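hey so u asked for the seq, here:
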Amino acid sequence: MSQNGAGITRIIACQVFKPALAHIGLTKRYPNVRVTYLPSNLHMRPRKLEVHLTRHVAVAKKKGERVICLYGDCFPGIEGICQQRGAAKVPGFHCYDILLGSEQFRELIEETAGTYFL
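ran it, structure tokens below
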């Protein structure tokens, strides 16, 4: 394992988090944090999302980076895959659930029957 990433925390996140993380200036506040955004349309192809996430985790781990997965339960087995590969997964069922918070997410879903996020 290479140590060139020692001290670096890599967040692998859905693209939906980009505006929020940019707004709070995450990488400016924490210079040892790096964020890799994967396209949000990968949710439409869960197997492809799994392949991309797995590959990016492997690359980061090979560099010696600590990895945080900023995704909901976006494909079957995501928790196990993160655990097997030594990546921490942020808890949450949907990316928007994580982004908005459970209370606000639930209110939004209840406000408009049939609401679905892509």
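The helical segments are 18-23, 26-29, 46-62, 78-84, 95-100, 102-111. Residues 12 and 36 are 5 Å apart (CA to CA).
lmk if thats what u needed
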